[in-house]
């Protein structure tokens, strides 16, 4: 009569060993993403940088997102990174400076390091006083890695970071808020070609550093037609796009695309991809009515006839129909335009829910 009892006890013990013992060696991880970028991807970091001149902390930012209150996104709604992540079935990572961030939040959602005004170069957007450059964002990411290793162990943490997705969306500020402004030394130290080479060389070092920290699946979002943002058009006498600025964006994109190919072939286990929506965005600007818009040259949020107003403020007035405008403010697209841009990136890269099943069991 004793043998069945022992057999049952042994089975229970073995079950516990399988469930809990093996779990200590394997990481049943949520697949998350880590986002590095500028105001096009910022979800609140700059709102905690109280001295920054680039903040989306006042109405009417966020009016079409969740509860309609400002949330740090430089838009009326979602960012391109929000939408691409949604279509991949990935959770939206909170801002690095969000007070709720802890190991559980990181493990389930990842982290967004993007900062309005951020650039590939440390000197970019220095007039904004406070912002996180890409090098700074990588430094913050290293801190998150050390934190997670301390919380869940080195082996689990390393696997968690290796299995994650990485998004880098940078470069526009390096032109708009650096090279194209004569107050910055880079504007008179380089010409267009040498400055772009400087950017790409710096970006290469940064992406190699990210790879050394565990980034294996990375998408770099290319630049849009920067010469067609409302601020750049306002600076021309005709109100048309600045083609010289657009040329800089296209040259940068071509070199960045080549860089992703080179890094994917030269770095171990690296899948670095280039997310390109330039042509689709340009076509949207050139033919807005085809896509259901009626304005692709002026911002929806303005201070009456006073222009340029560099940010949307509580004193600003909004266009009658936000879904009809391509641009939200002088710099940033609207939620609806971001959706079209994101759809183009998803289509070109073949991204969807099928690219991740939500968890990994290695």
UniProtKB/TrEMBL annotation:
Residues 1-23 form the signal peptide. The keyword Hydrolase applies. GO terms for biological process: lipid catabolic process. Transmembrane segments: none annotated. Keywords: Hydrolase, Lipid degradation, Lipid metabolism, Signal. GO terms for molecular function: hydrolase activity, acting on ester bonds. Belongs to the 'GDSL' lipolytic enzyme family. This is GDSL esterase/lipase.
